[in-house]
Amino acid sequence: MTNDVKLTLEEVHATTTEVLKAQGFNAAHANAIANTVTAAERDECRHHGLFRLSFYVNGLHSGMASGNAQPELSQLAPSVLRVDAKYTFSNLSIAMGLEPLAKLAKEQGIAALSINNALSVVALWPEVEQLAEQGLVGFSFVAAAPYVAPAGGSRPLFGTNPMAFAWPRKDRPPLAFDQASSEMARGEVQLRLRDGRLLPEGAAIGPDGQPTRDPAMALVGAQLPFGGAKGSNIALMIELLTGPLLGDLLSFEAGERDTANTGAPCGGQLIIAMDPARFNPTGDPDAHLAHGEKLFEKILEQEGTRLPSDRRYEARGRTPSEGVTIPRSLFESLESLRQGHRPERHDYEGDQVLV
Amino acid sequence: MTNDVKLTLEEVHATTTEVLKAQGFNAAHANAIANTVTAAERDECRHHGLFRLSFYVNGLHSGMASGNAQPELSQLAPSVLRVDAKYTFSNLSIAMGLEPLAKLAKEQGIAALSINNALSVVALWPEVEQLAEQGLVGFSFVAAAPYVAPAGGSRPLFGTNPMAFAWPRKDRPPLAFDQASSEMARGEVQLRLRDGRLLPEGAAIGPDGQPTRDPAMALVGAQLPFGGAKGSNIALMIELLTGPLLGDLLSFEAGERDTANTGAPCGGQLIIAMDPARFNPTGDPDAHLAHGEKLFEKILEQEGTRLPSDRRYEARGRTPSEGVTIPRSLFESLESLRQGHRPERHDYEGDQVLV
After folding, report:
1. How far is Cα A219 from Cα A215, in angstroms, rounded to an integer?
2. A13-65 residue pLDDT tens
3. A180, A239, A144, A165: which is closest to A47 by C-alpha?
4. Do A306 and B154 touch (CB under 8 A)?
5. Does B149 touch chain A (CB under 8 A)?
6. In chain A, which ranges are continuous DSSP H helix?
7. N or C: which end of chain A has fewer CB within 10 A?
């Protein structure tokens, strides 16, 4: 018996749906989460795949998240939509808001979608990629959970605050990136703790405010922004865009609210879509596509470069036929959850311990 | 006789206007540029102050820029405006587009302004600050001039590609940042060459693709993005937003067009404005203001931190009464230009030599 278990993507989706329903999510939420988890496994983004199910389940059992409230879509202004997630996980709210956002962006040229009161444990590339598959340019921003010290400071205040961006390409998947404004993703620090590996220089400080490479010290101290003061400015911008702008929580407020330490705190998310056909003054609605490719060619003709989404798309070419492998321990945890057993205690400590 | 000359801000504005008119700019362009230059001197952003006048003058005499074409405002979509700068410097076009953009953002919730065919040598904080002074959230992006290698690469391709962001504050100037997506601003590399100082590690590579701290090697090699692959993604995003999205030039194309090496290549600029009053679901149109202050307080209570615009505002408190000082050599160059003399040859090499 090997330590890995192989699953098809269909099995990933079915397992996720069944686990979530057995744990108390309604069908709509279970399906929306399963779509996200399956997309992550398909692209071999393991942090956001089946490994993440414990975050969803913990969030539900902690009482911090609802598994069946119905998100509500409304229009705040001619170019601004809102989905009130009503303290559910963001997956269904994003799915509900994305089509209306795309339609509005095509009418108005630029449009925004505000998502409020959502627990977010998802990657951001799926939604910007979906926008770009419809020919749009997409931004997405989310904050939450105070893990990162501002530049020059010594205590956690900002979230790891990722931003994503996608650009449409003709006859191939969009160019997309999705990056934390911290030097490292939270999950990567956790993985290094589990695996007994040191952090690189410059990624974290300990509770004493001094640089540390020890992931355990980093988790009780603070992570650092990427790129010094400039990355810290990006993190600050994302706090303002997803908290005060949307009338939602700042990361430190979300941390205060998450009394169960689910690792899935609640907050706002801002998604912006632009239609290049409404910007291009030449009258050729596809002029931007060939033009973007000129840039990508120039990048790739330099040895040592790659485009930001290439690794995911390479995986996407393989996994629909080859399936994905997960550790047997994770598979067994999922089987237990599918049978309706509550997660073991260590599953609850979202921020500290991995399945 | 000291080596510095003191000027009031009124004298800065008058000198700039007179120099530009004497060199061939019409009154509208001269005034718009003088506003920008004076704002930069007022905030002690020397790179964009009187020192920059040689870039404007060189751009005009090189034939790359027009000093009197009239920019044209149009509406591309319900939430998208455009100013065709007609190969003038961007200052007047931004001034023309900013009020209509602010008005549209208040109506629509979010709106964008595309500026095409503009030579840009300005800082971006003035326009986002102006938007935020009207209660809006502002973004600005500009590319142009291939100085920066993509992550992993070895040759210049991206511009130094700055982005700016501003957030409104009650009864005080906005929070604003304006940062290159290169590790260093171009002007800072030039200043270190002039002053015989080394670059920090990680800022540049030489023409051989190897790391260098020699500013002369950096100027003929390539600068590097800030924060590695993440900063490179930001630079890539800005190329796409200001080139293909707007139907304008990529940095490498702008470099090819700038056959006179004016250091002021031509391209697009994207400005986005959002009205927090149209996003906030609470119905209190000012809720975001107090909420943003909560974050700023949390940042500043950590020793060693500051807000991104604090240095500029500190200068702004002093210079209206105290004036600014400039090197006598610069003052004398400006006097010569004001009398209608053409700049000396070394003034033309915008990228390489400082006045």
Report:
1. 6
2. 999 999 999 999 999 999 999 999 999 999 999 888 998 899 899 999 999 99
3. A180
4. no
5. yes
6. 9-23, 27-42, 53-61, 90-108, 125-133, 186-195, 215-220, 228-242, 251-257, 287-300, 310-322, 328-338, 345-348
7. N
Considering Cα of B279, then B284, then B288, then B289, what sign does the dihedral take?
A: positive
Range with top average pLDDT, A180-189, A203-212, A276-285: A203-212
- At A157, list the tokens: 């205040």
Q: Is CATH 3.30.1370.60 what the domain over A4-182+225-289+308-348 is classified as, yes or no?
A: yes
Please write down the long-range contacts of A124-127, taking CB distance under 8 Å and 24 or more positions apart: A124/A162, A124/A163, A124/A164, A124/A178, A125/A45, A125/A164, A125/A166, A125/A176, A125/A177, A125/A178, A125/A309, A125/A312, A126/A36, A126/A39, A126/A40, A126/A94, A127/A94, A127/A98, A127/A164, A127/A271
Alpha carbon distance B49, B187 (integer Å) = 12
Which tokens sit at B21?
């008119």
For the cut 90, the answer to whether the pLDDT of residue B186 exceeds it is no
Q: pTM value?
A: 0.96
Report in angstroms the alpha-carbon separations of A130 from A168, A279, A308, B64, B240: 10, 20, 16, 40, 18
Is the predicted pLDDT of residue B353 greater than 50, yes or no?
no
Q: Please report the pLDDT score of residue B331 as a whole number.
A: 95
Gap between the terminal Cα atoms of chain A: 20
Q: Cβ distance A57 to A15 under 8 Å?
A: no
* Structure token digits, residue A10: 């269909």
Q: Which two tokens stand for residue B256?
A: 């090819």
- ipTM, 2 decimals? 0.95
Chain A interface includes B125 (CB < 8 A): no
B141 bridge partner residues = B163, B270
DSSP B174: P
Min Cα–Cα distance to chain A from B203, Å: 12
Structure token digits, residue B119:
């030579």
- Tally the C-alpha atoms within 13 A of residue B221's C-alpha that lie toward its C-beta: 21
User: Comparing C-alpha atoms, which of A109, A143, A115, A144 is closest to residue A127?
Assistant: A115
Give the closest-approach CA distance of A215 to chain B in angstroms.
21
**CB contact residues (below 8 A), chain A span 190-249, against chain B:** 226-231, 233-234, 236-237, 239-241, 243-247
Q: Which of A249, A256, A274, A311 to mutate to test the interface with B (most CBs of B within 10 A)?
A: A274
The band of B1, judged by pLDDT with boundaries at 50, 70 and 90, is low
Kindly give, in sequence order, each residue whose CB lies less than 8 Å from that of residue B319, ignoring residues fewer than 6 positions away.
B9, B41, B42, B43, B44
Residue of A nearest to B295 (CA): A250
Sequence length of chain A is 355
Phi-psi category of B165—alpha, beta or left, where left has phi over 0 and alpha has psi -120 to 50?
beta
Nearest in space to A199 (alpha carbons), one of A207, A187, A210, A188: A188
B77 contact A CB<8A: yes
Residue B296 tokens, joined: 């700023």
Q: How far apart are alpha carbons B322 and A153 in whole angstroms? A: 33
Q: Which residues pair with B324 in a beta bridge?
A: B7
Question: What Å distances lie between residue B266 and A258, B49, B51, B84, B252, CA to CA?
Answer: 50, 20, 20, 12, 11
Nearest 10 degrees: Cα torsion A82, A86, A89, A94: -20
Chain A residue numbers with beta carbons less than 8 Å from the beta carbon of B292 are 240, 244
The torsion angles phi and psi of A150, rounded to 5 degrees, stand at -65, 155
Nearest residue, CB atoms, B154 vs list A112, A155, A302: A302
